[in-house]
Amino acid sequence: MCIQNFVLPGLEVHAKKEAKVKQNIINAASKVMLEKGFASSNINEIASEAGLTEPTIYKYFMGKEELLFSVVEQQLEDSFAFINEHLQGINGTYEKLRKLVWAHLRYNDLHREYMILLFYECRSNRNFYKSRAYELLRQYSGNYLYLLEEGMQRGIFRPTVNIRLIRDIILGLLDYEAYTVVVTKEILEAVLDHETIMGLVERMLIIKEDNDNSSLSKKPRILRSAVMLFAKKGYAETTISEIARMAGVSNGSIYEYFKNKEDILLSIPEERFERQLQQLEETFNIRSTERKLRRFIQDHFRLYSDDYDFLIVYLVLIELNRRFHKTRAYDTLSSYMKVFEELVQEGIDEGSFSSDCNVRVFRNMFLGAFTHINLRWFLAPGKGNVDKFGEINTATNLLLDAIRARS
Predict the structure, then answer these.
(1) How many domains are contained in the chain?
(2) What is the pLDDT of residues 152-180, one digit of tens each?
(3) Is residue 71 part of a domain?
(4) Which residue in 112, 129, 256, 381 is deepest, having the highest Cβ count within 10 Å?
């Protein structure tokens, strides 16, 4: 005889009542924390707002911090439902990525109070990175990795692109777009920057027939692909066909530039050393605006990496502090970033960078990339094994790709 699973009617009613009380507490906590801030609010005020006693609050939550994370967790679930709804019926990998970015921006614009809690109260709290709310954010970021991987496999995106860094750059940019709406109030709505954002992302990702497939760019792409495959699989296990596929060229194109696989291998240092020699000529007298900007970006990463303790304190405790943008330190940072903005504008004026580049949005992309990449390094379980030097160089190249004028 099969015994059916069942729930006693009384228990089901009790569970619904408990869930209703818990939801009431979360709603009250959200209202109080948004009005007064996390630090200034207390359990007694939340209990009063909910029409309950303090002991009742502690029956459902261990304390104010758990309440905060529960509020944000619920908001995240709501945002994901909003985003998923807008993705329905969208076909094509790049089209899905565009819509994902648009829905992210739109939700943040519509729920600015949520961004205040997430930025100021959660991301500045180390315990947040151990919460279920943060795990939801990690799962959400996986959507970007999935679409980027799919785009590479389908030949839509450049085969040699580092999708983890692209993910960090996009999410970092979206964070700073929200920051410029909620905190610095430079713009009224972040969603208005959607086309500009996707223009930057497209230059990093999309294969351009009139550029990437030109004879002038095939050889370095073949060499870059060979380096990646040799490093990952070893020389003996790598085939000419694999190199061609990763470089986005035919097998025959390989032999237009190289006699065989060994010729490719021995050409790798030649190309690199020639580039080093060219860079050495400008080491003490940099004339190229692009090289100046490259130096600025790389020096910014390396300057902070010299004192990683300060970096983490800055990213977690200072940058997302409500009062930071009113300090003299913030004014100094603004002056520093003004140099960055002037370099970008100089490149636009001389034609090195795309004429439709939005300096403010690209600044947000740079700052967001810096924050997200460093936080990933800090939070990664095997953070000591990360090739930081390599990722800095790759991130710099991606950022410059985003604004470089196409011939």
Answers:
(1) 1
(2) 888 888 877 889 999 999 999 999 999 89
(3) yes
(4) 129
